[in-house]
Amino acid sequence: MNTINVSWNFTKYAAPPDIPVSHNSIFVVATGNDNIDFVRSEREFASEAVNSRRVIAVMNSDRNNGRSTCDTAFFGALWEEPYKDKAIVSYPGKLDGHAGVSCPGAGGGTSFSAPRVAWLAAAASPNIDPATWINAVSARIIQSRTRVADDIHAAPLDIKKLFTRE
Question: Was domain 2-163 assigned CATH 3.40.50.200?
Answer without folding.
Answer: yes
